[in-house]
UniProtKB/TrEMBL annotation:
Record organism: marine sediment metagenome
The protein's name in its UniProt record: Uncharacterized protein
Record lineage: unclassified sequences, metagenomes, ecological metagenomes
């Protein structure tokens, strides 16, 4: 899976969980749009304006402790085999 495919699946999961919870107004759906930001060491996946995942050059996916700081204790797998928790969304 590429980083673009991963970001798209995260966005689809976030939006699906909002629809399931009955919170799928335009503002909420717009705040689930993912953005990919490449950095020197990490690629960041933002959901809305918040950082959600950071991917290292080896393809390991980590959560975010603070913006630009990966939480190395919370690994979500790799791009080749990501955890399903990545795609469940906040309300899933």
């Amino acid at each position: 899976m590429t980083i673009k495919q991963f970001a798209k699946r995260v966005q689809e999961g976030e939006q699906a969980s909002l629809r399931k919870a009955g919170m799928a107004c335009k503002v909420n759906l717009d705040n689930c749009i993912t953005e990919i930001k490449s950095g020197r060491k990490w690629t960041k996946i933002n959901v809305g304006r918040a950082g959600k995942f950071m991917i290292n050059p080896d393809g390991y996916i980590f959560g975010v402790k603070a913006y630009g700081v990966p939480n190395l204790r919370h690994c979500y797998g790799t791009l080749a085999n990501p955890s399903e928790a990545c795609f469940q969304g906040l309300w899933g």
